[in-house]
Write a structure and sequence with these properties.
The protein is α+β, with helices and mostly antiparallel strands. Helices cover 26% and strands 48% of the residues. The protein is built from two helices and seven strands; from the N terminus they run ββαβαββββ. α1 packs parallel to α2 (55-73). The longest helix is centred in the middle third of the chain and has 19 residues, at 55-73. The two termini are 19 Å apart.
């Protein structure tokens, strides 16, 4: 994963050998903006499913769900397992994520992510998969 600068926001690239792995690395990138994932223990597991009409919408919805769980459950996540399948109506994602409750005495406090944006969100699938996304800080 690499980060790139944008005004008042931060963007990231996430890579993978396949779409599943690239989405998993996008989850890591998101939580490395919020904290440092190497200090987040995989104590608690959460699972969710998403269906979206296309891959970019699926990425947006996935990152939105991660941010929602972070804010509602007061958790940080460091491990991501994603399975994406093509369906008749688009793409279906199953995710299991692991992390722990926020403890700012223990965890590094990075930037607060306010929202996920569609701006410059992209998925390029060649020999590897490259995702790009921008979050509002």
């Amino acid at each position: 994963m690499n980060f790139f600068d944008v005004t008042a926001d931060i963007g990231f690239y996430a890579y993978g050998n396949n779409l599943n792995e690239a989405f998993e690395n996008a989850g890591l990138a998101l939580f490395n903006i919020i904290s440092k994932t190497e200090y987040i223990e995989p104590i608690t597991s959460k699972s969710f499913e998403i269906t979206s009409e296309d891959k970019v919408s699926l990425l947006y919805d996935f990152l939105e769900e991660l941010l929602f769980l972070h804010e509602i459950e007061f958790m940080l996540f460091s491990q991501f397992k994603v399975t994406i399948n093509k369906t008749d109506d688009g793409y279906h994602l199953n995710a299991t994520i692991e992390g722990e409750g926020i403890n700012w005495d223990k965890h590094y406090r990075g930037d607060e992510v306010k929202a996920i944006t569609f701006h410059k969100m992209n998925i390029i699938e060649k020999d590897i998969v490259k995702l790009s996304a921008i979050v509002d800080l």
